[in-house]
Amino acid sequence: MSDLDRRARALRALPPSCGPVRLIAVDGHAGSGKSTFAARLAAAVGDDGSDDNGDGVPVLHLDDLASHEELFSWTDRMLAEVIEPLSNGRTAHFHPYDWNLRRFGSPHPLEAAPVVLIEGVGAGRRVLRPYLAGLLWMEREAEEAWQRGRQRDGSELSAFWDDWTVAETRHFAADPSRPFADALIRECREGYEWLPGPAKTARPNWFITQGDRFPPAY
């Protein structure tokens, strides 16, 4: 069994945290690589022989819940549209935000699968932690992550990034996620290194040991 398969199996074996769902959050600064990591992790966790589509487990991107007016004030929508139905074993339906049209769209389903990933800045915020089976933090310094994000999005979004970095700094100052992370995920030249997070000692069922390495999912 590969290290990737071992981690996927361990995540699937965690106790349910939101009704029948094991909710795993991937948090970190904007531009830290959360989306790419979450996609690879979702594919690995979903590859247990029961996913006929081969698409991995469901992933909720918090960019779909946030908006220009509410960069971090999406908690009520998250609780009502996602947490409440999942906690009752029902498919959730959230309204994804269109960042170009600046409006919310038609309902989009999110299955109450055995494992569901939440990816985005603030995924490990205080109000969501009681529903999480695990919290993973992308270990990249804020300034480095933001620079990566600016390079990715181009100069046309420079003003947005100026506003975003101020809002993100205020959010994490008031509601930090990293101190509660079960594992710190560090991107390496080949794959990812998993390090014990600050909350590891409080989560004895977790499986991270010093220096663990998580190879890329190809």
Describe it for me?
The protein is of the alpha/beta class and 218 residues long. It has a single domain (3-214), classed as Rossmann fold, CATH 3.40.50.300. It is built from five helices and eleven strands, in the order H-E-H-E-H-E-E-E-E-E-E-H-H-E-E-E. The chain has helices at residues 3-12, 34-46, 75-87, 142-153, 158-174; strands spanning 22-27, 59-61, 92-94, 97-98, 103-104, 108-110, 115-119, 134-138, 183-187, 192-196, 212-214. The strands form three sheets. Strands 2-7-1-8-9-10-11 form a seven-stranded mixed beta sheet, with helices on one face. Strand 9 (183-187) and strand 10 (192-196) form a beta hairpin. Helix 1 (3-12) crosses helix 2 (34-46). The longest helix has 17 residues, at 158-174. The model is unreliable at 49-54 and 213-218 (pLDDT under 50).
Search tags:
globular, two-stranded antiparallel sheet, 218 residues, seven-stranded mixed sheet, 19% strand, Rossmann fold
Number of domains: 1
Mean pLDDT: 89
State the low-pLDDT regions, or none: 49-54, 213-218
Approximate shape: globular
- End-to-end CA span: 16 Å
Q: Looking at this structure, what is the CATH superfamily?
A: P-loop containing nucleotide triphosphate hydrolases
What structural class do helix, strand and pairing data support? alpha/beta
Count of helical regions: 5
The Cα radius of gyration reads: 17 Å
Instruction: Please state how the strands of the largest beta sheet are arranged side by side.
Output: 2-7-1-8-9-10-11
Beta-strand content estimate = 15-25%
What is the N-to-C succession of helices and strands? HEHEHEEEEEEHHEEE
| CATH domain class name | Alpha Beta
